[in-house]
Design brief:
InterPro entries: Tscrpt_reg_HTH_GntR, WH-like_DNA-bd_sf, WH_DNA-bd_sf
Strand order of the largest sheet: 1-3-2
Pfam families: GntR
Structural class: mainly alpha
Distance between the termini: 45 Å
Number of strands: 3
GO molecular function: DNA binding; DNA-binding transcription factor activity
Organism: Listeria ivanovii (strain ATCC BAA-678 / PAM 55)
Largest sheet: 3 strands, antiparallel
CATH architecture of the largest domain: Up-down Bundle
Number of helices: 11
Shape: globular
Protein name: Putative transcriptional regulator (GntR family)
Radius of gyration: 19 Å
Length: 216
Protein backbone atom coordinates (compact mmCIF):
# COMPACT_ATOMS: atom_id res chain seq x y z
CA UNK A 1 0.00 0.00 0.00
CA UNK A 2 1.46 3.42 -0.93
CA UNK A 3 2.19 5.91 1.83
CA UNK A 4 -0.33 8.73 1.90
CA UNK A 5 1.21 12.01 3.02
CA UNK A 6 -0.82 14.64 4.81
CA UNK A 7 -2.57 16.82 2.24
CA UNK A 8 -2.50 14.21 -0.53
CA UNK A 9 -5.80 13.87 -2.38
CA UNK A 10 -7.01 10.27 -2.20
CA UNK A 11 -8.17 10.45 -5.81
CA UNK A 12 -4.64 11.39 -6.94
CA UNK A 13 -3.09 8.63 -4.85
CA UNK A 14 -5.44 6.06 -6.40
CA UNK A 15 -4.81 7.46 -9.89
CA UNK A 16 -1.03 7.13 -9.59
CA UNK A 17 -1.29 3.70 -7.94
CA UNK A 18 -3.42 2.22 -10.74
CA UNK A 19 -1.44 4.00 -13.45
CA UNK A 20 1.80 2.54 -12.07
CA UNK A 21 0.28 -0.96 -12.12
CA UNK A 22 -0.59 -0.45 -15.80
CA UNK A 23 2.70 1.10 -16.95
CA UNK A 24 4.80 -1.55 -15.19
CA UNK A 25 2.78 -4.34 -16.79
CA UNK A 26 1.37 -5.70 -13.54
CA UNK A 27 -2.06 -4.91 -14.98
CA UNK A 28 -1.79 -6.24 -18.58
CA UNK A 29 -3.99 -5.26 -21.52
CA UNK A 30 -7.54 -6.49 -20.90
CA UNK A 31 -7.14 -6.68 -17.11
CA UNK A 32 -10.34 -5.74 -15.27
CA UNK A 33 -9.85 -3.10 -12.57
CA UNK A 34 -11.99 -3.92 -9.53
CA UNK A 35 -12.97 -1.11 -7.16
CA UNK A 36 -13.53 -3.40 -4.15
CA UNK A 37 -10.08 -4.97 -4.46
CA UNK A 38 -8.41 -1.57 -4.81
CA UNK A 39 -10.37 -0.26 -1.84
CA UNK A 40 -8.83 -2.98 0.32
CA UNK A 41 -5.33 -2.52 -1.11
CA UNK A 42 -5.36 1.26 -0.63
CA UNK A 43 -7.42 1.29 2.57
CA UNK A 44 -9.77 3.96 1.25
CA UNK A 45 -13.41 4.18 0.21
CA UNK A 46 -14.54 3.41 -3.33
CA UNK A 47 -15.46 7.03 -4.14
CA UNK A 48 -11.91 8.37 -4.80
CA UNK A 49 -11.04 5.10 -6.56
CA UNK A 50 -14.07 5.46 -8.84
CA UNK A 51 -13.04 9.03 -9.68
CA UNK A 52 -9.48 7.89 -10.39
CA UNK A 53 -10.79 5.17 -12.72
CA UNK A 54 -12.90 7.73 -14.60
CA UNK A 55 -9.84 9.97 -15.01
CA UNK A 56 -7.76 7.01 -16.19
CA UNK A 57 -10.44 6.29 -18.80
CA UNK A 58 -10.21 9.91 -19.97
CA UNK A 59 -6.42 9.62 -20.07
CA UNK A 60 -6.57 6.49 -22.22
CA UNK A 61 -5.15 4.02 -19.71
CA UNK A 62 -8.50 2.32 -19.15
CA UNK A 63 -11.60 1.74 -21.25
CA UNK A 64 -15.07 1.42 -19.72
CA UNK A 65 -17.35 -1.31 -21.03
CA UNK A 66 -21.05 -0.98 -20.28
CA UNK A 67 -22.22 -3.34 -17.51
CA UNK A 68 -18.76 -4.94 -17.36
CA UNK A 69 -16.45 -2.39 -15.76
CA UNK A 70 -13.11 -0.77 -16.57
CA UNK A 71 -10.37 -2.64 -18.39
CA UNK A 72 -6.74 -1.84 -19.19
CA UNK A 73 -6.55 -0.32 -22.65
CA UNK A 74 -4.14 -1.42 -25.36
CA UNK A 75 -1.34 1.06 -24.74
CA UNK A 76 -0.03 1.22 -28.32
CA UNK A 77 -1.06 4.52 -29.88
CA UNK A 78 -1.69 4.18 -33.61
CA UNK A 79 -2.77 6.97 -35.94
CA UNK A 80 -6.49 6.52 -35.29
CA UNK A 81 -5.99 6.49 -31.51
CA UNK A 82 -3.70 9.52 -31.70
CA UNK A 83 -6.28 11.66 -33.49
CA UNK A 84 -9.01 10.43 -31.19
CA UNK A 85 -7.00 11.85 -28.29
CA UNK A 86 -6.04 14.97 -30.22
CA UNK A 87 -9.76 15.74 -30.46
CA UNK A 88 -9.68 16.46 -26.72
CA UNK A 89 -6.58 18.63 -27.25
CA UNK A 90 -8.45 20.52 -29.96
CA UNK A 91 -11.45 21.16 -27.70
CA UNK A 92 -9.23 22.38 -24.86
CA UNK A 93 -7.33 24.69 -27.21
CA UNK A 94 -10.66 26.15 -28.32
CA UNK A 95 -11.72 26.63 -24.68
CA UNK A 96 -8.45 28.41 -23.96
CA UNK A 97 -8.93 30.57 -27.05
CA UNK A 98 -12.40 31.56 -25.85
CA UNK A 99 -10.90 32.68 -22.56
CA UNK A 100 -8.39 34.83 -24.43
CA UNK A 101 -11.09 36.30 -26.68
CA UNK A 102 -13.43 37.11 -23.80
CA UNK A 103 -10.52 38.51 -21.77
CA UNK A 104 -12.12 37.31 -18.56
CA UNK A 105 -8.93 38.34 -16.81
CA UNK A 106 -5.53 39.63 -17.80
CA UNK A 107 -3.71 36.71 -19.40
CA UNK A 108 0.00 36.92 -20.19
CA UNK A 109 0.74 35.43 -23.63
CA UNK A 110 4.49 36.12 -23.82
CA UNK A 111 5.26 32.52 -22.86
CA UNK A 112 3.04 31.24 -25.70
CA UNK A 113 4.81 33.52 -28.17
CA UNK A 114 8.27 32.49 -26.94
CA UNK A 115 7.64 28.76 -27.30
CA UNK A 116 6.00 29.28 -30.72
CA UNK A 117 9.15 31.08 -31.86
CA UNK A 118 11.21 28.11 -30.65
CA UNK A 119 9.10 25.73 -32.75
CA UNK A 120 9.66 27.91 -35.82
CA UNK A 121 13.40 28.15 -35.12
CA UNK A 122 13.81 24.38 -34.80
CA UNK A 123 11.78 23.78 -37.96
CA UNK A 124 13.88 26.28 -39.90
CA UNK A 125 17.06 24.52 -38.76
CA UNK A 126 15.57 21.06 -39.37
CA UNK A 127 15.99 20.04 -35.75
CA UNK A 128 12.79 18.03 -35.91
CA UNK A 129 13.06 16.14 -32.61
CA UNK A 130 13.47 19.43 -30.74
CA UNK A 131 10.73 20.95 -32.86
CA UNK A 132 8.27 18.20 -31.91
CA UNK A 133 9.03 18.62 -28.22
CA UNK A 134 8.64 22.40 -28.46
CA UNK A 135 5.30 21.99 -30.27
CA UNK A 136 4.05 19.75 -27.45
CA UNK A 137 5.18 22.41 -24.96
CA UNK A 138 3.33 25.04 -26.99
CA UNK A 139 0.07 23.07 -26.74
CA UNK A 140 0.59 22.45 -23.01
CA UNK A 141 1.28 26.13 -22.26
CA UNK A 142 -1.67 27.25 -24.39
CA UNK A 143 -4.08 24.91 -22.60
CA UNK A 144 -2.46 25.88 -19.30
CA UNK A 145 -4.15 29.27 -19.63
CA UNK A 146 -7.36 27.52 -18.52
CA UNK A 147 -5.76 27.12 -15.06
CA UNK A 148 -7.21 23.63 -14.70
CA UNK A 149 -4.92 21.08 -13.02
CA UNK A 150 -6.91 18.13 -14.34
CA UNK A 151 -6.64 19.30 -17.97
CA UNK A 152 -2.92 19.95 -17.50
CA UNK A 153 -2.41 16.42 -16.20
CA UNK A 154 -4.41 14.88 -19.05
CA UNK A 155 -2.29 16.71 -21.64
CA UNK A 156 0.97 15.77 -19.93
CA UNK A 157 -0.14 12.13 -19.78
CA UNK A 158 -0.97 12.28 -23.49
CA UNK A 159 2.51 13.49 -24.45
CA UNK A 160 4.13 10.91 -22.15
CA UNK A 161 2.11 8.16 -23.80
CA UNK A 162 3.04 9.38 -27.28
CA UNK A 163 6.72 9.28 -26.34
CA UNK A 164 6.46 5.81 -24.81
CA UNK A 165 3.85 3.98 -26.86
CA UNK A 166 3.22 5.69 -30.19
CA UNK A 167 3.95 3.93 -33.45
CA UNK A 168 6.65 5.38 -35.70
CA UNK A 169 3.95 6.68 -38.05
CA UNK A 170 2.45 8.75 -35.23
CA UNK A 171 5.83 10.14 -34.18
CA UNK A 172 6.45 11.32 -37.74
CA UNK A 173 3.15 13.20 -38.11
CA UNK A 174 4.32 16.46 -36.51
CA UNK A 175 7.63 16.28 -38.38
CA UNK A 176 5.89 15.67 -41.71
CA UNK A 177 3.57 18.64 -41.13
CA UNK A 178 6.36 20.84 -39.74
CA UNK A 179 6.31 23.44 -42.53
CA UNK A 180 2.55 24.03 -42.16
CA UNK A 181 2.80 24.05 -38.35
CA UNK A 182 5.58 26.65 -38.55
CA UNK A 183 3.55 28.78 -40.96
CA UNK A 184 0.43 28.74 -38.77
CA UNK A 185 2.42 29.45 -35.60
CA UNK A 186 3.89 32.51 -37.32
CA UNK A 187 0.33 33.66 -37.97
CA UNK A 188 -0.62 32.94 -34.36
CA UNK A 189 2.30 35.01 -33.07
CA UNK A 190 1.08 38.01 -35.06
CA UNK A 191 -2.46 37.48 -33.77
CA UNK A 192 -1.27 37.22 -30.16
CA UNK A 193 0.80 40.38 -30.52
CA UNK A 194 -2.19 42.24 -31.98
CA UNK A 195 -4.54 41.17 -29.14
CA UNK A 196 -7.12 40.22 -31.78
CA UNK A 197 -7.52 36.58 -30.81
CA UNK A 198 -10.59 35.62 -32.84
CA UNK A 199 -8.54 33.91 -35.59
CA UNK A 200 -6.56 31.63 -33.28
CA UNK A 201 -9.05 28.77 -33.66
CA UNK A 202 -8.74 28.91 -37.43
CA UNK A 203 -4.95 28.68 -37.25
CA UNK A 204 -5.07 25.66 -34.99
CA UNK A 205 -7.69 24.03 -37.23
CA UNK A 206 -5.29 24.44 -40.16
CA UNK A 207 -2.59 22.65 -38.14
CA UNK A 208 -4.95 19.78 -37.31
CA UNK A 209 -6.07 19.49 -40.93
CA UNK A 210 -2.46 19.39 -42.14
CA UNK A 211 -1.62 16.55 -39.74
CA UNK A 212 -4.76 14.62 -40.69
CA UNK A 213 -4.07 14.93 -44.43
CA UNK A 214 -0.51 13.70 -43.97
CA UNK A 215 -1.57 10.81 -41.74
CA UNK A 216 -4.37 9.51 -43.95
Amino acid sequence: MPKIAKGDRLESVAFEYIKNKITTGEYPTGYRVVEAKLSQELNMSRTPIRRAIINLCHSGFLVHQYNRGAFVQNTEINITEFFSRMKLVELLVYESTEKLVLREDYIVVDDIINIAEKVIYYEKNREYELMRGAFEDFISIFIGKLNNDYFNRVIQDLWNEVHDNATNEVKLIVVSASDRISEELSNMIEILKSWNYTQLKECFQHIMNAMILIAF
